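Hello forum,

I keep getting stuck at the same step: I have a sequence, I want structure tokens, and every attempt I make locally crashes halfway through. Rather than fight my setup again tonight, could one of you with a working pipeline run this one for me? It's a single chain of 373 residues.
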Amino acid sequence: MDPRYEALAANVASHSTKLEKGEKALIHAFDVPHEMTLALVRAVRARGAIPFVQLQNARIDREWVLGGPDEQFEAALSWEMDRMKGMDAYIALRGAPNVFETSDLPQEDLKKAIRILKPVLDWRVKKTKWCVLRWPTPSMAQQARMSTGTFENFFFDACCMDYSRMTEGMAVLESRMAEADKVQITGQATDLRFSLKGINAVACGGTHNIPDGEVFSCPVRDSVEGHVNFNADTIYQGTAFSNVRLAFKDGKVVEATADSNETKLNEILDSDEGARYIGEFAIAFNPMVTEPMLDILFDEKIAGSFHFTPGQAYEEADNGNQSQVHWDMVCIQRPDYGGGEILFDGELIRKDGHFVPDDLQKLNPEYLLAESS
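Reply #2:
Ran it on my machine without issues. Output:
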């Protein structure tokens, strides 16, 4: 057993989900080594909790979704919902031998599966203690343009870092976002304006996602104006998109373009009424994650970035927008990506990816990466 597997499993069972004696935890393993699943079973039991295991495979999933009738998904909904209601916690490890496995699935098949099964996702997010993380595969190493061994080392360094060092700075940023009204974001081909008034903010430091490092809120639904250019490529529903540009009026995406797959971009944004409105705004600061790698659980945490999310809002920071879509799109504002500024009510919060106010200095890399005293 690789000791890094045991360390990660223990971190998920203790810090991320805080399992307690007698709680039932579903371990959902997508194309990950059996050794890691074994490590999670042992870590759950070490906390006195009860492990349940589901193994899943991307190629089989693709075949199951392809041409599936409504009755198939409705039966799956009943089974999945009954099981999820019996769980106190949900731990998902998601490997990706081929990140484009679902890229050629008909859009209507994907929409149907997501729409019918969405209540299971909603229950899991709202009613269980959950944590979702990726697994380092050769496919992911290729996305990150690293050797397999180097990428594995990067993965475990990012996932097992000392997240407690984020706590103090996150609390300050969370408070500032919760109290803010007008937000302005500027940068290359970007000039966004929106309001956060009355919307909660949530700090994320290794509980629901690993790696982690963000504080998120949500714009007032109809307040978003202007335009944004996302300089990190993105994958959604198995398709890659490059240089996505969105223009807003009265909160709605009125124009969406991309250098690749622009037609599919607009098809996804037309999935339902809420898909063209924003359901999340987040500022990220994980110092271990610095470059995009076409995996949103990593890319949305990139130091010096923010993400803006067409689709479903989270219950913890809710503007009322509902959608089957939740698509985090990432813009990096460090100088090597063209720079940019974020202002709250006219005060400069971050410039070129670096936090400016004194009370936010502990979210900058020089503090987060320093050795604890």
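The chain has a mean pLDDT of 93. If your local run keeps crashing, start a new thread with the error log.
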